[in-house]
Amino acid sequence: MIYVTKLNDEEVVVNCDLIEVIEETPNTIITLTTGKKIIAKESSKEIIEKIIRYKTYLSKRLREGHDNG
Hints:
By secondary structure, this protein is an alpha+beta fold.
C-alpha cells in the first residue's frame, strides 16, 4: 500500500498490487486492475519509487520474520 495525493490534496492509500497503468497526461493517472482511475499529484517516477520502497520494506520484514523463527 502506498500513499498518493489527489489533486484536491486529499491523501489516499492505494494497493500497489492493483496498479495496471500509470500515465502522465500531464496529470498522473493511475489505472487499477478494477478499472478505477486515480489522478495523483506525484509523478509516475515518484509513484514507482514509492512502490519500490514499499516492496523493499515488505521483503525486509519477511526476511526478518523468517530469520526470527
